[in-house]
Specification:
two-stranded antiparallel ribbon, mainly beta, about 450 residues
Length: about 450
């Protein structure tokens, strides 16, 4: 989606984003005036040949009377990066039927996205309500190949469905209260191709044979988001507060195979995630300064179920359906964002705006693991910081406007405090949980993103 404040480090608690706000909370679409068509092509690249993507979104947001709404679609081409290519053909039952061919370069995967939004403004009350439905068809997921050691091809096939209902109450003096209810359903199947090597004692050669494993991942999320923004005494100051609750269930978690790490099968699990944040902004003339501070506590419990009787070292038996391994995660994360925007006007219809920003995401967690088969317990602590400098440039002309934003996200600081780790999607918000055994090694890696959005009023 197009955004103005992402060029300011993503500050959002006390700074409005006229481009992005209607998509994050559909009730904020009540602030739309008229109709507007937009396109927002974007690209990103992971350094060291680890992957890239090109995305072309376009859509329309409009208001007629008290009703407002929007439609948006996007197509994405995702390159998985440099992968293994077999030098010769080997037996692989099932490969042709599943579209897996390691003798050819890994092709570009295509993802599809769509969103529909509808809402209504109640005149004279300052209240608007809205709902949105977004869907994603996923045939490629960046970085998933790093979760299966020894794999030569991975074919994801899945979807994500996001349902949102929002409400907005505005007062004349600049105060606003918003509420958002979210339900998200994520499901993907990974067809993973491995090469097994066997020794032919007669010919005295190594033979290779393909083996396909099917890994299923499912996640369900319910979320409630509250936000309150109001002006402070003194010209141009605004203060914003947020509180969010996410309840996640994980009916199925794949058995990942991570380098130098012993694989542990996992089945169901559940998580409770929260955030509490405060933001402050100051506007003076054409200059806007803003900053956010958010604390994210998270609790997660995952386990492995036995599908057959399992003997324990203590002489007991774990019956089918019993827990063989349990993992308890305790996260204490923090997000800091800061940014500025300066607008230079040339009359009322022409303007240029420069934006600069920086965000930092600190991830810290502890893991307590209990193995009921071996009658052992273990603990670990990990932490690192993801830094994201951002920048942006906008031009507004009579009848149209163009916006550019860029960012570089990377892990710069790594603390190795144990031998267990949870792997999450960069920037948070991921659905991957992987409690494992073995040493943690995180190398510095950067993702560079560019996006240009053009908006044209229709009437």
């Amino acid at each position: 989606f197009p955004s103005l404040t992402l060029g300011m480090g993503g500050v959002s608690l006390a700074v409005e984003d006229s481009l992005l706000d209607p998509f994050s909370n559909p009730a904020k679409g009540g602030r739309i005036g008229g109709a507007r068509f937009f396109v927002a092509p974007g690209v990103y690249r992971v350094e060291r040949g680890a992957g890239a993507a090109r995305t072309l979104p376009f859509g329309i947001v409009a208001r007629s009377g008290t009703w407002f709404g929007g439609l948006a679609v996007a197509m994405q081409g995702l390159d998985m990066g440099e992968r293994f290519e077999a030098e010769r053909v080997f037996p692989c039952p099932g490969c042709p039927g599943r579209g897996l061919d390691p003798t050819r370069p890994d092709r570009t995967h295509g993802n599809r996205y769509a969103l529909a939004m509808l809402g209504n403004v109640f005149p004279g009350t300052g209240v608007s309500i809205g709902g949105s439905v977004s869907w994603a068809g996923l045939n490629g997921i960046q970085g998933v190949d790093q979760l299966y050691l020894g794999s030569v091809r991975i074919k994801p096939d899945g979807h994500a469905l996001d349902l949102r209902i929002g409400a907005l109450k505005q007062w004349g003096e600049g105060r606003a209260l918003t509420a958002l209810l979210v339900h998200n359903r994520f499901g993907v199947t990974h067809d993973v191709l491995f090469l097994d090597q066997t020794w032919d004692t007669t010919a005295r050669v190594l033979n290779q044979r393909g083996r396909i494993e099917e890994n299923v991942e499912r996640s369900r999320t319910w979320g409630l988001h509250l936000e309150y923004v109001y002006p402070l005494e003194g010209r141009g100051w605004r203060l914003g507060w947020i509180a969010t609750t996410n309840l996640k269930s994980h009916p199925k978690i794949p058995t990942y195979v991570i380098p130098d790490i012993q694989s542990i099968p996992r089945d169901p699990g559940h998580s409770e995630a929260f955030n509490l944040g405060v933001g402050l902004s100051k506007t003076s003339g054409g200059l806007t300064l803003g900053g956010d501070l958010i604390y994210e506590p998270i609790w997660s419990h995952t386990w492995a179920d036995s599908d057959q009787p399992v003997g324990t070292v203590a002489g007991g038996t774990i019956l089918p359906g019993g827990k063989t391994v349990e993992n308890w995660f305790r996260f204490s994360n923090a997000v800091v964002r800061m940014g500025l925007a300066h607008e230079f006007r040339d009359g009322e219809s022409r303007a240029a705006t420069i934006r600069l920003g920086l965000s930092a995401h600190s991830i810290n967690y502890s893991l307590a693991q209990q193995d009921h088969v071996q009658a052992t317990t273990r603990g670990a602590h990990q932490g690192w910081v993801e830094w994201t400098p951002t920048w942006g440039l906008s031009f507004r002309f009579p009848g149209w406007e163009v916006h550019y934003r860029g960012s570089v996200t990377g892990t710069e600081i790594v603390r190795l405090g144990g031998d267990d780790v949870t792997i999450t999607e960069p920037g948070g918000g991921g659905n991957i949980l992987a409690p494992i055994n073995g040493p943690l090694i995180i190398g510095a890696l950067r993702v560079v993103t560019h996006q240009i959005s053009i908006a044209v009023p229709i009437r």
